[in-house]
Amino acid sequence: MANDSKTWRCGKYELSFDRPRIMGVLNVTPDSFSDGGEHFDPDAAIEYGLAMLDAGADIIDVGGESTRPGFTPVNPDEEARRVLPVVRALAKEGAIVSIDTRHVAVAKAAVRCGASIVNDVTGFTDPKMVEFVKTSTCGVIVMHAGEVAAPARTHATVQLDTSAAAFVAEKAREAAAEAAREAEKPARRRRGKLLGEPKPEAKLPGGVVQPSLPFGEPEPTSEPASEQEAPAVEQATAAETVAPAPEAAPAATEAASEPNDHLAAMMRRSARREEAYVPTSQLRRFTLPDSAPIMRRVMGFLSDQARALIHAGVSRDRICIDPGPGFGKTANEDIVIQRETAKMASLGYPLMCAVSRKRFVGSVSGVTEAAERDAATFGVCLGAIQAGANIVRVHDAAGFAQFLNGYWAVAKPQPRRAFVAVGSNLGHRCDNIRAARDMIAEIPLTCVSNSSKIYESEPAYETRQDAFANAVIEIKTELAPLVLLDELMKIEAELGRDRSKKAKANGPRTIDLDLLWMDGETHGGKKLRLPHPLIGERDFVLVPLEDLMHDPARFFRYNGVEVKEPEDRVGHIVGELGRM
Questions:
Q1: Would the pLDDT of 444 be above 70?
Q2: Which pLDDT belongs to residue 248?
Q3: What is the pTM of this model?
Q4: What is the C-alpha to C-alpha distance for residues 174 and 408, in angstroms, rounded to an integer?
Q5: Are 23 and 61 in contact (CB under 8 A)?
Q6: What is the Cα–Cα distance from 129 to 131, expressed in whole angstroms?
Q7: What's the mean pLDDT when you consider all of the chain?
Q8: How many other C-beta atoms lie within 10 A of the C-beta of residue 203?
Q9: Are the beta carbons of 430 and 578 closer than 8 angstroms?
Q10: Above 80 in pLDDT, residue 163?
Q11: β-bridge partners, 530
Q12: Is the peptide bond before 69 cis (omega within 30 degrees of 0)?
């Protein structure tokens, strides 16, 4: 189950998995398979990203290149132009941002702009990408993209002949064939290298060998019609290396600029396999292919890449793995992989389930339109969570948050510690605070475990108003943070808090409830920030917290919150008003 001891360190953030984490998909592309063009405008993308955070997403995965079957590769400059404004704006709001890219230049720029995770669909098979992430502190997602079926074997008819003459004749044929191959080698040499020679495997620091991309063989390129055409092709290639690149290129030109794009070639083959019916006379005896060879390839690649990253200098607690559903895999193969989620979770790394709206989800649910597959996606994700997946990557973050909150409340008893700050400077201040405490105790799946004394403090931020009464309440709750926040806002409204636009942001109020901190929770967005971004400067919060914990300043500093010295804080405590 997701309720385990794994943690994932992503830059300044550390995600725990006492509950599954939701990664919202934000495609800043015109051609993604289910939502292409919906968030292509940067402002629309930022607004949608913030909406997903406010609906329950823990991470926002920003991508600027569609990798759907048959996709057109995007120039890294264009990809960066699409994603960087979005990454910067979301990170500024405290979001944990993942950059979905296979280009090291885009990854570097996004991390500089605030991204905390690099999600590489090519599984960090590029040594330059490995060299970058080892020098950063970002989290990394190693994804498997490639065919998992065993290569087809061709069988020649064999006729046994045990005579000595047959043996000698066979040896003679082998010698002739070897001589012919040796004679061809000089003609095949180009630029000092034999065509068809395998590319040497790149080596990472420490002598670790970086494996080749797991995409199978690239699509064959057409040969010149005659020997006379070859020099012209070579001249054109030479001209391309000399001529300056145009400032902007259409999509067709961008695709042509990467003729050896293995990922694009693999996804084109994948699309053709799914769309074409291949008749066969060999009937299968089982509904699904054997899982052993499929999982050997997927798990072997993921574990090898994770070890390569560790040997290169990336700490283990920064690594997450993703089997890459839909990338070069048939529907049957994807189902096999999902059914083996527990085996992948046993590798010990945080495990992602990224099946949202994929073609195989449509195959098992009978839903043709990708955008209509969310309900089926939730079902597949639930199965993965039960088997040990820690993160779910979904398009409908709001819908899945509701789905998960409902399931988790019933299936997984999980009381967590949290602190709520309470303040009032209108009416009977102490009575308002006590009333709020009693109403908090009535919130479903929540209890009040402790309360500080009530203190009087100077007004903060807006100083021309009456002094405040303040306290902090310690609670235990099984609600998700955003659900708990909604309940606190209902209490404010019932006790007469004015949150209309005409009310001053930090002005007088009958009651003010702030969710300060919750065990294991980090959150960003407009609606809720956890830990509360102003804890470290509020004397009227830190002093009451001393009644509930030892050295709250040290506690919050350990959790990454900057805490100011007492003389530099706002809203200083000036006296005690009694017990709760």
A1: yes
A2: 41
A3: 0.80
A4: 67
A5: yes
A6: 5
A7: 84
A8: 11
A9: yes
A10: no
A11: 523
A12: no
Alpha-carbon gap, residue 97 to 59, rounded angstroms: 6
Residues 393-426, buried b or exposed e (16+ Cβ, 10 A)? bbbbbbbbbbbbbeebbeeeebebbbbbbbbbbb
Distance separating alpha carbons of residues 238 and 231, to the nearest angstrom: 10
Give the pLDDT score at 497.
92
Express each pLDDT in 361-411 by its tens digit.
Answer: 999 999 999 999 999 999 999 999 999 999 999 999 999 999 999 999 999
What's the chain's Rg over C-alpha atoms? Answer: 30
Which residue type is seen at 16? S
User: Tokens at residue 419, please?
Assistant: 């602190």
User: What tokens does 421 get?
Assistant: 């700050």
Residue with structure tokens 């190693």?
A: 142
In contact, 142 and 321? CB cutoff 8 Å: yes
Please tell me the total number of residues recorded for the chain in this structure.
Answer: 580
CA–CA distance from 255 to each of 213, 252, 404, 466 (Å)? 19, 5, 40, 66
- Parallel, antiparallel, or unpaired for β 454-457 and 468-477? antiparallel
Q: Residue 311 forms beta bridges with which residues?
A: none
In this predicted model, which residue has the larger pLDDT, 288 or 231? Answer: 288
Alpha-carbon gap, residue 495 to 205, rounded angstroms = 62
Angle between helices 397-411 and 374-387 (to 10 degrees): 40
Cα separation values, 325 from 145, 334, 353, 361, 413, Å: 8, 6, 8, 10, 31
Pick the closest to residue 104 from 74, 84, 124 (CA basis): 124
Of the candidates 441, 420, 450, 415, the one whose C-alpha atom is nearest the C-alpha of residue 516 is 420
